[in-house]
Write a structure and sequence with these properties.
Chains A, B, C: It comes from Quiscalus mexicanus (Great-tailed grackle). Three copies of one chain form a homotrimer. Chain A has about 160 residues and is mainly α. Chain A has six helices and no strands.
């Protein structure tokens, strides 16, 4: 029946691991929105005039339409997440469906998600380089490794 | 046969609902590109020198290489879509495969897509706050709720 | 067994084609990060103070915290990729599961990926317009065509 069909994929252990790590890393990415909002409010640095209306009219509110280094830093971290987590989610799904060993798949997922969590701390604290650069490269390499297996397994051009 | 296999997922009603709402909300996001292009052309505000070549050479074309508040507003709405619709598409897929009740799933999908359509109007008109903020929070909460169910159902770390 | 389940989708030829082209176009998008890094290093144009620490302390390093036209151009190409490849990956997956003919599916995937590769060259060289604009429109239309078939096939609102 419908139910049986819908739970097939989700019964597969590699797919369950993919689902777990993908949900975690997407929630981590979503957290960046809250951190941006936190810094916008505490630093009083907004970009839309309608967002400063509660500070009064005219010049008194206008001075809060400005950029703030902390806000911009979180936004760069958020965009870097999009650039790296989108390929992980897409290629990771294909990888999970390509029938890898559970232990190999877990290794890929754990390293990627660990690297991206470290990357966020490295960006926001910030840590001295090459901390952020290395964590970026590790996540990048994991996605590349999964893409290599996907292409080797499914290649149909 | 191949056909039977390929239509299994698509026969599942929750998955069909997911596919319908995901296609709609991704088309809505794609619409932002057209709105950006519309404002770039009507406001004559471009970013690439090669895009202003039809306005002539040298200084006469150079003055159209500028930012415009309406263009920047649409672009912020587009980026906000990316930041919020990407997690919905990824987590929503896992959620649809986790075997939720159709009525519960429809509730999630409808509220999310409704909230994002409202968010776009709130951003572009613009509506006074907290209109845009609330619609953002509603969509965010729906994705969070789906992630919670996914993690509860599939958890394999 | 687990393995049989996990390889069902991947045995479907349309899905294999989808996986191949999606992996290729996501790798192409990931390449934009490397090109950005290349231009940041060769043009000495950075955005984070910690990235210029190796150039020394104080004013000598501060002068490398600047924007560079080549870096900004690659970044715009990268963002345009995100805006267009995310809908392709999401809608393409649903399309691949909607049971299209292999030849029709291959036509969609090949044109999209070809158009996005051309778009990258058009942006980075840059080619005179309407080269970049047309390649963008071609990719956009392919995704729109797949979305139309998805909605026609699965519609459940």
């Amino acid at each position: 029946g419908e139910m049986a069909k819908s739970t097939q994929l989700i019964d597969n252990e590699v797919f369950r691991a993919y689902a777990t790590y993908t949900a975690i890393v997407l929630l981590k990415m979503m957290l960046m929105s809250l951190i941006t909002a936190y810094f916008r409010i505490t630093r009083k640095a907004f970009v839309n005039p309608e967002d400063t209306a509660s500070f009064g009219k005219g010049e008194s509110a206008k001075k809060f339409l400005r950029t703030d280094p902390d806000v911009e830093r979180v936004r760069r971290g958020h965009l870097n997440d999009l650039e790296n987590i989108v390929p992980f989610v897409g290629i990771g799904l294909l990888y999970a469906l390509s029938g890898p060993e559970l232990s190999t798949a877990l290794l890929h997922f754990r390293i990627f998600v660990g690297a991206r969590i470290f990357h966020t701390f490295a960006y926001l604290i910030p840590l001295p380089q090459p901390g952020r650069g290395l964590s970026w490269a590790v996540g990048y390499s994991v996605t590349f490794s999964m893409a290599y297996r996907v292409l080797k397994t499914v290649w149909l051009l």
